[in-house]
Design brief:
- This protein is mainly alpha-helical.
- The chain has 2 domains: 2-135, no CATH class; 139-201, Arc Repressor Mutant, subunit A (Orthogonal Bundle).
- Helix content is 49%, strand content 7%.
- It has helices at residues 2-9, 18-29, 56-69, 75-86, 98-103, 119-124, 128-135, 139-152, 160-166, 172-184; strands spanning 108-109, 115-116, 158-159, 188-191, 198-201.
- A 3-stranded antiparallel beta sheet has the order 3-5-4.
- Helix 2 (18-29) packs across helix 4 and helix 8 crosses helix 10 (172-184).
- The relative contact order is 0.07.
C-alpha cells in the first residue's frame, strides 16, 4: 500500500482499483466475459481475461441504448446487464443498480421479480420469440393452461404431479396458489385428499 501511495504521488500510477474498473468496462462493452479473479487468495492475485466476443448484438445494443438515453453506463451497470443477459445471479452489492436500469428501459421486471433485457433488444437481434420465452407466461395464461389440462383429463381427473409437467418453471407452492384461484372462481374442484386428489372441471358439490 505504501509503495502504491508513493507511486501515485509521483504520478506514475492512478488511484487504486481503477485498473480493474477499466478491465471490466472494456470487456463488457466489447461483449466479452468479465475478468475472472476467482483464483485470487490472500497472498496472490489470479486473473483470467477472455478474448472471445460472446455476443456482438449485445455490444450494438449497449451502443444504441447509450445514444438513446444520452447516458453513460457505469461499470456496475454493465456488470448487472451482462449478468441478466447470461442468466447468472446479480451480485448483491449491485442490486441497487436494478431500479435505475429499469427506469431508463435497459431492464424489465416480470413475474416474481424476474429480470429480462427489454423487448426491443430481442427485436433488435431478430429474436422476439426468445423474449417471450425468457419473460415467461403471465398469471392468466398459466391458469388457462392448467384449466385446459384438467379439461382434457376428462372424468379421470388430473393429479397434482401432472401440473408440474404443464408448468415446469412454476414451484409447487405457485401451482397450489393457481389451483386455489381456479377453485375460488368455480372453474375446478378436487376429489380425494392429499396426493391421491384429482382435479376436475366445474365447481363441484356444494
Amino acid at each position: 500500500m505504501r509503495i502504491a501511495e508513493a507511486l501515485a504521488k509521483c504520478g506514475l500510477v492512478e488511484r487504486s482499483g481503477q485498473g480493474a474498473d477499466r478491465m471490466f468496462q472494456a470487456a463488457l462493452r466489447e461483449g466479452k466475459l468479465p475478468p475472472d479473479f476467482s483464483r485470487s487468495d490472500a497472498y496472490q492475485v489470479g486473473l483470467a481475461l477472455h478474448g472471445t466476443v460472446q455476443d456482438e448484438a449485445f455490444v450494438r445494443f449497449l451502443e444504441r441504448l447509450g445514444a438513446k438515453t444520452q447516458r453513460s453506463l457505469s461499470v456496475e451497470d454493465l456488470v448487472v446487464l451482462d449478468a441478466v443477459r447470461r442468466g447468472v445471479p446479480i451480485p448483491l452489492s449491485l442490486r441497487e443498480r436494478v431500479g435505475p436500469l429499469v427506469e431508463i428501459g435497459a431492464l424489465e421486471k416480470v413475474a416474481r421479480g424476474k429480470l429480462v433485457l427489454p423487448k426491443r433488444f430481442y427485436a433488435f437481434v431478430g429474436k422476439p420469440g426468445e423474449y417471450t420465452r425468457r419473460r415467461g407466461l403471465d398469471r392468466e395464461t398459466q391458469k388457462t393452461l392448467l384449466f385446459r389440462h384438467i379439461q382434457t383429463s376428462g372424468t379421470a381427473g388430473a393429479p397434482f404431479e401432472e401440473f408440474t409437467q404443464v408448468l415446469p418453471a412454476a414451484s409447487r407452492n405457485e401451482l397450489k396458489v393457481l389451483l386455489r384461484e381456479l377453485k375460488a372462481e368455480g372453474r375446478i374442484h378436487a376429489r380425494g385428499m392429499t396426493r391421491a386428489a384429482r382435479w376436475h372441471v366445474g365447481p363441484g358439490e356444494p
